[in-house]
Amino acid sequence: MKKFFVYILLSMSFLIDSCKKVEYDWEKFTTSAAPRVTVNITKSALPTVQTGNVSFFNLKEADYATKQQFEWTLDYFDFGRTKVQSIDVYLSFNKRESSPPAYPIVFSLAGEFPSIRQFPLPSTVLATDKLFERVTAFPKTFTHTPAELAAFTGTNLSAVTVNDYFVFKFILTMGDGKKIVQYQENACDESRGEPCDCRVGVRFKNQ
Questions:
Q1: Which domains does the chain have, with CATH numbers?
Q2: pTM
Q3: What pLDDT, on a 0 to 100 scale, did the predictor assign at position 167?
Q4: For the segment 154-195, what is each residue's pLDDT rounded down to a tens digit?
Q5: Which of 45, 50, 149, 196 could make an S-S bridge to 188, C-beta 3.0–4.6 Å?
Q6: What are φ and ψ of residue 201, in 5° steps?
Q7: Separation of CA 14 from chain center
Q8: What confidence score (pLDDT) does residue 28 get?
């Protein structure tokens, strides 16, 4: 009797599967890698936190343009399921937003992450962003002075004001050649503790 019911269940599952008429996009998913950034917070001119993915230059200090440094390391999450060929790193200089994040950095109620995004999302690479480097060996550490970043972006440091910022964005090329050119906000929002680091940057302060 038990065998009879097993046969019936198997037959029904076969019939249900054979009657399927629609293939949904979500059934064709593949696993993607995601950029991972680690900021050297000890080199920030002002105190910062690792989970904020932000560093600071201090306009108040003499010779800040050549003495201060922004250092960060680029790697990626592969979740043990995929491979990465390269990550294209883009750089831009940006004037302050109408409502920049507060400083000192305010934490969420959990006390682990900033309560607000440190740079705008989404992190779409724009025509005004300049290709800084194509990274093929990981992890890769970058160290920049304000003068170096200004020279690359054509920025006049004498015109920089508080909360202006440099930001790096990423385009990731997978092992099969697919490019990840856009990241959802809920995948790389540090105020939510998301694992993907789709941008990193350094802000100007005067303290």
A1: 34-205 (2.60.40)
A2: 0.86
A3: 98
A4: 999 999 999 999 999 999 999 999 999 988 888 999 999 998
A5: 196
A6: -160, -175
A7: 44
A8: 73
